[in-house]
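Possible race condition, two jobs.
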Amino acid sequence: MSKYEPLTHFLIDKDSHEVPMTFAEIEKVVGFKLPEKASGIRAWWSNNPSNNVMTRAWLAAGFVSERVDMGARRLVFRRKVDRRPSPTTVPTHTPPSSPGRSLGLLTRIRDRMAGTTSIPSGADVTAPTGEVWDADR
């Protein structure tokens, strides 16, 4: 169980498309102070699931962070989809990655890009697009 799981449940319970919050409100929800990095490093609030444990908490709830105002210590969580995720989609444990495990470049790229594009069913990604690429041009 992640220490940020209360944030996941808090966001899942919201009916609105956007949930504006101050850093202090987030601290109240999770029950402890956020790390100093949260106030000093803008990238801490990125939506990269490899970023930190808290990022996975809001992503698991179906939200992304945006409009982060570091000076005012506030941000907006925006729902990625119109429907609320079911509580069964909330991870209770994320296994740590093995430090000695070496992933190939293609696997790392695929993992980072997961969910950013979709290919319609039946599409042939190897078919010519109609464009002509001329090496002499």
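Job #2 (started ~2 s after job #1):
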Amino acid sequence: MSKNAQGALFALVAFGLFSTHDVFIKVLGGSYSPIQIIFFSVLLSFPLVTLMLVRDTTSGTLIPRHPWWSAIRTFAALITGICAFYAFSVLPLAEVYAILFASPLLITLLSIPILGEDVRLRRGLAVLVGLVGVLIVLRPGQTELTLGHAAALCCAVFSALASVIVRKIGNEERSVVLLIYPMLASFICMGIALPFVYEPMPLRDMGFLALIAVFAHVAMRFVIKAYQTGEAAIVAPMQYSQIIWATAFGMLFFGETPDLWTAIGAAVIIASGIYIVLRESKPGLSENTPVLNTRSRPETGTHPRVGSILEQQNEASQGVAKPPATE
């Protein structure tokens, strides 16, 4: 089996695990606030994340070199987490994924003012076509748009913002800073709000929370292995396999059957996203490759960002530190 085939296989396993992770979120979301689910998910993830953080060999402090960008990114990750967990709780899984898949389109748009990316006609048209796909899924005026739809859209927007900011400052910030701040913010903010929404949890539901943390961690490991094995242009489109898992899980566990328009809209969004990834992978067409370098799912602040871990491992293997920030 070729390296690219192995990388694609690792990615397919990873995103299947992530989709299973989302099933447990939806199950718990029927009884508990997203605030409570996020708080305990982060709490149970910390021991696993600590094992990664101790491997950071670069010198320096945990003070961000770009505090304002880091603060905006942390806020974006916090909003993304709340919105994602709420959307999964109240909307069909496949519908949530269809909307979240608009994130690469938004990354492309946000990279223009933030990264100075030159988005030419073809990628620009792909973004427009993808946004039409979002409208097909939502069908404003024909179907009732709920708070869940608004949450899924907010998740896509703020996830894209967080990803573009990481692309802007990632070469100058320590990987450990990029890893830890969103998780700490989620833990502290959700902890402050927890007394207002807390519901006692039986042992079974605590077990589900532990599974959420474990599935996220194992899936993240598979994504890392995928990018270490195969080319990014091959691995990145595998994230769209989540729509297949979501459809299957929705039908099997929740009696959800996506309608024709959701399927058509999802197909349009996915095709646009894959086209953008392939365009960015061609030499000379994208200076920053913002979508291609967004390694995984929306950054929810409940588990580390895959790109930061890959960067950390590269630094450790090369035995070098990042250069100081330049202003």
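The two ends are 46 Å apart (CA to CA).
Logs attached separately.
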